[in-house]
Amino acid sequence: MTDITTPSSDEQTPNQQSSNQQSSNQQWSAARVADILLTAERTRTSRTSIQKEWPDLTLDVAYLAQDIALADRRARGEVVTGVKLGLTSRAKQQQMGVDEPSVAWLTDTMALPAGLPVPRNRLIHPRAEPEIAFVLGRPLRGPGVTAASALAAVDRVYGAIEIIDSRYSGFKFTLADAVADNNSSGVYITGPISRRVEDLDLALEACLLEVDGDIVDSATGAAVLGHPAEALAFAANTLGARGHGLEAGWTVLTGGMTDAIAVAPGSRVAVHFTSLGSITVSGG
After folding, report:
1. Alpha helices in 24-145 (DSSP H)
2. Which of 25, 92, 93, 260 has its CB 3.0 to 4.6 Å from that of 129, i.e. a possible disulfide?
3. What is the Cα–Cα distance from 163 to 182, expressed in whole angstroms?
4. Backbone conformation region of residue 170, classed left if phi is above 0, alpha if psi is from -120 to 50, else beta
């Protein structure tokens, strides 16, 4: 049953529509974008595209909004624990009309301990996707980071399930919208098995995505920019251009290997990797 007091559907209520109309009459800024999206996240309220209301929402402004939102999270006690990449699939890039991925932040509150269900009381419309995750053994900072130098900074490799959650109705957004929304961040679960980089062929590392006992999709690490290390290098170089670096001990989610699938209440989602074990999460 839908919680009427904290709407979680993609439909816009009259109050939300009125709020969106009123917002168009106010002055836009990166700070205002950050506030709108953080409020939507905390109230579990979806909304329409911000860029449609404010065409001047460029990628630079969206990344600034993302950093402002991170400062708010940190002020509330959250700790930065890594970064996540989006649009690392060539097919998704073509669908969005872009030619590069995007980067966003991870904090400690986004890590879901193994065995816990999807926290539906925190999310609007969760979707799951399998990912390869790196844990860094030393700092990494661009520019000039290559896939090879990025891999040299990795301590361990894990399989992961990311539960993404957009603050936009129906997951309908532009690239700038998504970046401002911290790349549809939700929660993530890392698997029980870790490997050294040299013990894996990451481009060929395969995964099966299972929902309620049925295999619904499959992929290999090559789906992530040809090799997950390319995603890590992109993150380091993009953050370096913004004055940030990746720290030792941080987790890097390299991007969805398959399309994200909706996580229904009571469902069971599992991901099975060739060398990185299996992860299972219930839909809550």
Report:
1. 30-43, 50-53, 59-75, 90-96
2. 260
3. 13
4. left
pLDDT in tens, 241-255: 999 999 999 999 999
Q: Under CATH, which number does the domain 78-282 receive?
A: 3.90.850.10
Q: Count CB neighbours of 111 within 10 A.
A: 14
Rounded distance between C-alpha atoms, residue 158 and residue 137, angstroms = 14
Residue 89 near residue 253, CB atoms below 8 Å: no
Residue that is written with structure tokens 């969106």 in the block: 20
* pTM given for the model: 0.90
Amino acid in the structure at residue 232: L
Tokens 């619904």 belong to residue: 216
Pairing state between β 278-282 and 268-273: antiparallel
The Cα–Cα gap between 189 and 42 comes to 21
**What are 167-215's pLDDT values in tens digits?**
999 999 999 999 999 999 999 999 999 999 999 999 999 999 999 999 9
